[in-house]
Amino acid sequence: MAKVKSKWICTECGYESAGYLGKCPECGAWGTLSEEIQFASKPSQQNEFVNTQKPELLKDICLNDEVRISTNISEFDRILGGGLVQGSLVLIAGDPGIGKSTILLQTSGELCKNGKKVLYVSAEESSAQIKLRAQRLCVNSDNLYIYPQTLMENIKSQIEEISPDVVVIDSIQAIYSQSVSSSSGSVTQIRECTNLLMHIAKSKNITVIVIGHVTKDGSIAGPKILEHMVDTVIYFEGDKYKSYRMLRSMKNRFGNTSEVGIFEMHSDGLKEIKNPNELFLNERSQISTPGSAIIVTNEGTRPLLVEIQALVGTTPYPSPRRVTNGADSGRVLQILAVLEKRVGLNLSKQDVYVNVTGGIDVSEPAADLGIALAVATCARDVAVDSQTVIIGEIGLSGEIHPVNNIEKRLNEAVMSGFKKAIIPYANKINDKRIETVPVKRLIDAISACVSPVSF
Q1: Do 414 and 345 share a structural domain?
Q2: Does residue 75 sit within a domain?
Q3: R_g of the chain computed on alpha carbons
Q4: How far apart are CA 322 and CA 329, in angstroms?
Q5: What pTM, to 2 d.p., does this model score?
Q6: CA-based diameter of the chain, in Å?
Q7: Whole-angstrom Cα distance, residue 15 to residue 26?
Q8: What distance in Å separates the CA atoms of residue 403 and residue 365, rounded to the nearest whole number?
Q9: What is the pLDDT of residues 265-297, one digit of tens each?
Q10: At 101, which CATH number?
């Protein structure tokens, strides 16, 4: 009888310990070590993946004519950096029901239209269930193979037999390998199966797309090493009360990070939104209202125009509330402190609410000036012109720091019909299409928007 052994593995970083520890010595997380029963495992069967290739000079390495594969979905291609790279390993994670399987089944159908052979491995659904979804999405191709399977060894043998161009694994938490004794979804199983898929992708030049689950706090389930092993990490985000979905690239070895692709969920699948600025500004009032400012945030290579809304009111409680939605709470608190110290705006007895419309999260510092003006105008009941965009980062002494890609931001503002832009003085630029107001300090930006008498 095989000898039974037990070890404790951190679910965050994969650290292994012979006994239970309250705090992981590797990553410092508390209560993340879980017990796994280990049996005498079979010898590793990865010898076939050993690379016997000799070192080559960089100048002698030849690239294939087709290094990338287009998915025919421009928003998805944008996230990937221009398409799927042959031999790459891509991880897509998101909340349950957000549309991960839908977008990948649509992508599989589009790849088959380009003459590619796709193997869709479903570990959570039957062939009939996938057929029903495919009919709803109008996906039908002779090059799309559906394989409901959870055993990694069987998946490997089918990959060798079919020789597909792209393999989709739905999902990695439901796949298990016989060489590992623990159950599917455990840290060891996820690590082993992902390692096998990585070797298959690199040795056979096959693109592998893996779907991953997320925990209740939004992080990818499994060890942190999972994100290090793959080439690209994409998060599927969305508001459960709205039909809009966002693909966000958090890691990409073959393109820009922090790229965003925007889709809208319909009954027949996800439809890409070519002009997201219409989405974020379509409900905006053309009448100037206090507490509203339009900013130009930069998501990857794409400038987006979003509306910042602020509400300031007197609180009956000793401690005022600071509530943010879509903006970093620490950044907002810093901006409020600058407004009090450098502008003289007393907010110590005021509740402050800051909201970013459209369901997008704004984290870059270029949104600072827009947040500050939205709060300041609401506190003094004055309004910023609805045809003005705000761009700038605020320092602790009230100075306005420059931002990157100012030309792209202004060009997007012009295309959306805005007439005026408040920008940092260091980004001073002459553009005849739009009136630019360079400012050095926060008080100068406030004066450029409203009458100084109001303050």
Answers
A1: yes
A2: yes
A3: 26
A4: 8
A5: 0.79
A6: 87
A7: 6
A8: 8
A9: 888 899 998 888 777 776 666 667 899 999 999
A10: 3.40.50.300
